[in-house]
Amino acid sequence: MKSYFPKDFLWGGAIAANQAEGAWNEDGKGMSVADVARFKPDVSVEDYKSQWHTSLADIAIAKETDDTVYYPKRRGIDFYHHYKEDIRLFGEMGFKTLRVSIAWTRIFPNGNEEEPNQKGLDYYRDMFEELRKNGIEPLVTLSHYEMPLYLVDHYDGWVSREAVGFFAKFSETVFREYKDLVKYWLSFNEIDSVFRHPFTTVGVVEEKYADKKATEEAIYQALHHQFVASAQATKQLREIIPGAQMGAMLTKTMTYAETCDPEEVLMAQKANRDNHFYADVQVFGEYPKHVLNYFEENGFQIERTEEDLRLLKDYTVDFLSFSYYMSMVVSKNADKREKVGGNLTTGVKNPYLETSEWGWQVDPVGLRISLIDLYDAYRIPLFVVENGIGSTDVLTKDGTVEDDYRIDYFREHFKQMNLAIKDGVELMGYTSWGCIDIVSASTSQMAKRYGFIYVDTDDYGKGTYNRYKKKSFHWYKDVIVTNGDSLYAEQESERTAAEKSPAII
């Protein structure tokens, strides 16, 4: 086997401002939804809904404290003060790109100011320039779970139409400010996550609504406003930075039927089709019929103006990016089957897959299937912008981490990406999630580590915050410098060694 990765393939890594930067109240930054996300050591790491849930009481308590121990996203890994050091390490690994996000509240602290915060603008300019100095192309997410808390308190988050205008001002400001530095952009991180954690994604506090149905209607309205804001941002980008590209970002939830029972196959098809809905709107510029039928059946009154619909149709995205962590199984007999948790949801355990310590079903082949399905569906370039495995790492006395388990994980996923490219998929690049250890999105802890670089801090913020290269750091560096050839050089070396070894009789 050989490498099919294109010469200009964008190898790199990804982080988010709210999980890495820290400095939550420095240089004029306002509070975001991430700043009220609490570390919950008393809640099971597999209890996905409880880990993410935020109530009105939770928000009120968080606003009254400056605590950074139980609000870990306020401290992150102090990337805000370490970014030059960290970027040099990424450059040493040979990164072609780094996916980052801009914290909206660093630019507009409350989200509705007339003028931007200059210190926030200066910080990101300096960071992007540092990336350029190290030969790294910025890939920038406009909104990565970082909505200003003020807009939640005073405008009901994205349910309010006003959020579209506030976001348009933010996006236009950063496009004009960084038009000489950034050409790849994403609008909303995992825009499909609105129902998994509505507060984090669109600022919806569920207890504000009368019942489950009213909450669902509000979430769909908030989602529509994000669709509109994404199209508006795409329009702005093309006017302000000719040649720049805007991508959509989806959580790819690959769902299998437990058996070949047609009813279970239909269940899996529905799950995958529902997952694609979010990309359908941003790639095709219109709502799929099955979603409109669902609105009608449930009596949902989603305000969608003619101008909205024209904007969606006229300003579709240039590429589709997605996160991929695990696959899931649906069954008619789910209540009788063993369950597994994960970073997405709880589902039926797949007996053919290994399960991580956080309950994820590790499925490299599922990534290949996802790439082929998405490319066949949309026929636009794809970009894997999140993939990785959270693990408990141990720092050795020599200042490294022997993380062969992480290398094995990435090796198998990279090989499946290569096969997908061989199958005809147009793949722009790959950014591993949490390329340096960061605070976990769901559990708000440090023990769940993803990176090639170890950060010396624990779940409670104790440690030196020094950076250490893991074994995987050097392995990934070889993958990048050889553009994937090293994946097969390892295999060839093992085959040759086996041939030279004397047979044991």
UniProtKB/TrEMBL annotation:
UniProt keyword tRNA-binding present: no
The organism of origin for this protein: Trichococcus palustris
Entry keyword set: Glycosidase, Hydrolase
Protein name: Beta-glucosidase
GO molecular function, one term: beta-glucosidase activity
SUPFAM superfamilies listed in its UniProt record: (Trans)glycosidases
Keyword Transmembrane helix: no
Any one Gene Ontology BP term: carbohydrate catabolic process
GO cellular component: cytosol
Active site, renumbered: 386
Family statement drawn from the similarity comment of this UniProt entry: Belongs to the glycosyl hydrolase 1 family.
InterPro entries: GH, GH_1_N_CS, Glyco_hydro_1, Glyco_hydro_1_AS
Coiled-coil parts of chain: none
